[in-house]
Structure prediction request, 912 residues.
Amino acid sequence: MNTVMRMWFAVAPLLLLSNAALADWSAVNMRQGVTEISRGVYDLHMIIFYVCCVIGVIVFGTMIVSMLMHRKSIGAEPATFHENTRLEVIWTVIPIVILVVMAIPATSTLRDMYEAGESDLDIEVRGYQWKWQYTYLNDDPAKEIQFMSALRTSQDEINNLENKGEHYLLDVDNPLVIPINKRVRFLVTAQDVIHAFWVPDFAVKKDAIPGFVHEAWTVVEEPGIYRGQCAELCGKDHGFMPIVVRAVPEHEYAMWVAEKQQEAQAAFETVGKTWSMEELMTKGEEVYMQHCVACHQANGQGIPPAFPSLVGQGVSVGSIDDHIDIVLNGKAGTAMQAFGLQLNPAEVAAVITYERNAWGNNMNDMVQPKKLGTMMASQ
Amino acid sequence: MSAVIEEHHPDDHHHGPDKGIMRWVFTTNHKDIGTLYLWFSFAMFLFGGVMALCIRAELFQPGLQIVSPELFNQLTTMHGLVMVFGAVMPAFVGLANWLVPMMIGAPDMALPRMNNYSFWILPFAFSMLASTFLMEGGAPNFGWTFYAPLSTDFAPPSVTFFIFAVHMMGISSIMGSINVIVTILNLRAPGMTLMRMPLFVWTWLITAYLLIAVMPVLAGVVTMMLMDIHFGTAFFNAGGGGDPVLFQHVFWFFGHPEVYIMILPAFGVVSAIIPTFARKKLFGYDSMVYASASIAFLSFIVWAHHMFTVGIPLAGELYFMYATMLIAVPTGVKVFNWVATMWQGSMTFETPMLFAIAFVILFTIGGFSGLMLAITPVDFQYHDTYFVVAHFHYVLVPGSVFAIMAAVYYWIPKWTGNMYNEPLGKTHFWLSFIGVNITFFPQHFVGLAGMPRRIPDYALQFADWNMVSSCGAFLFGFSQLLFLFIVIQTVRGGKPATEKVWEGAHGLEWTIPSPAPYHTFSTPPKEIPEAHG
Prediction:
């Protein structure tokens, strides 16, 4: 649809009724989702919606009849009746009965949602400003899979310099992968402010609260890609931290796990080698653009005072130890996070090196991943 | 009655209003202060409205065009704060100032000097709040609900000014509500028993108690924030032994009664207007009083329905779901009573009646979505989406704001002595009615389809309805300039209004001349009418 057409649709909403968008209810109604719970929730939604429609037709219908028949202009004389206890009792009791009837299935669905059974897979979901971290909990820490999941939509698409892709704002670099027909438990928490983990197709929405862990669970029945968004205002890029879940058959899931574990091993090995300046700068720019750019901006100038500039001031042109400290441990009371929790030693070393040598900061020094590996291990 | 007026006349001569600006600065006259509140509220309505239009302009299309995400968050926050605390609440206080003494046959508010203070705090509070836009780091950007820790550890420096401004608004509200309570309980004319008071007076009495109960809670929660930010406490920081969810409990213990503070006086206004234009007594006066009191009571015990997703245990979720569903009962009683009042009346449809009828219909639609939101398992899907935005705008805009406009059209002949221009009033109504529905109805759709609230940019499937909504917002917004024009035109002149103004009007305010003299009921009225609406 081109812009002119969009304009027409907008100024003449009636035209929209003929739009194909309406034939497809997904544009105007809740989706049924792909779990037993989500279908139960959808049914409740439709029941209460129809109840409201029926009451609405009765109440508004009465009003409209009254407005048409009981108007002075057609000579209606006002009646004098008022106060009728029986009527008052009736219109108090009937709503109570409707509410009780409605409360029964609602209670039952809610109890099912709170049913804390044994899970097949536990995933810690941790909200950060403005991305998610997923940790597949495992009794053997060496086998634990952990990765960050951030928006993949480019800044050019957001700033209208490029056409917007099909999954504009709903695409991430590393989706959460779960097996179908398994009971997956999400342990939801946050690192900084409150976020909310929401996947509409699972009818799962749980606030991610720093310092507290809450659980939610799901059993997905159909393979597919399910998209959601953070649902609690969490600062500047609240609108830019989607959630993408890829539900796959079990054998595919097993393959994915093996691959992830191999990747982790490979990353661990790169920490041991000595990196050249070019390697660090290339890797550093990549890490910076993924993790730092939202606040400190592509040109390093930041958005003062909340997000300070890194150019020609502060730790980037000061002591290298202070620089490492702030990147690893964050800065209390600010949005600066403890990236030691999110990045591996090679990534931290590279990004520090990048910040010290980009944008004319020419410090000409570098940090080797090996050094950080020892520091981070001892923490 | 004319004898009473002649008695008043000499008073007017000696104690008329001062001349010039000082009349307004030092005034202790309830009518002057009512006027000040109403104009202040209208200014804030335009200020909040301009921010809303910036938001809707940004959301006209996907992508970032007009404002940055940082500014967007500041705009949503300030729009909410300004509309709630600057537009809707002061408008109702202004109406209370004008009308409560005239309705109960009192000469003025009980505490006139305090009345002056409670108004004049507001311009300072809101100047301070608005000035945060010019501060380094920008205005508050954490939503009007200012959840910690986004509003504490992660807030811009202007948060301290925001806290101070909230304290000032709270002091103003508490003083204003003490004044209303003392006036209603002590200054009623002899014979004006509680059950003869117009419903507007009743609903304001209940509202004033709600305000006194919850504004200190708001003051408490912002003070705890202040301590966390500047004095090293950790009320809302789990790292120091606190709890971010505690913030939400305290905030919503204030916040839920607060939303009823913004609707109860509207119920009173509509209960006055519908009987007048249906030329028929309010169907169930007593049950309306009891329903208002029940709604006020329930408002204190349902707060956590705003927090169904924070991880409350099952028993808590069930309790708050059932309690919330109960609110539908007294609210239903109100709606049924208004409909029964219209039934077999002899209706005419002047502008106040149009706004009142639109209020009943559109507020009921907001009530329906409220009932849907009460169902906890489904709320998980609605929570923090545009469905919620649609819900509370339906009860606030065609709810509270329409009631305020209805009240202005209904009583402005009494205030100014002039009739407003009826065709223009009706034009204003229809533009507003159409605009408000085009703006907010599609927001139900995008909310159900999965669009979170408070986002500056959205996925492509939400584009069409957002564009419709933005068009409606501009129609609604610019229609309010017509309202401004009509009000100014009426203040400056127009067909002289009679004493009674409306054929079906009942109540003490319609027994005094139009415009109402500067001082009324210096001696109490002799005849107290039965309650009519």
User: Anything to note?
Assistant: Chain A has a mean pLDDT of 89. The CA atoms of residues 327 and 363 of chain A lie 17 Å apart.
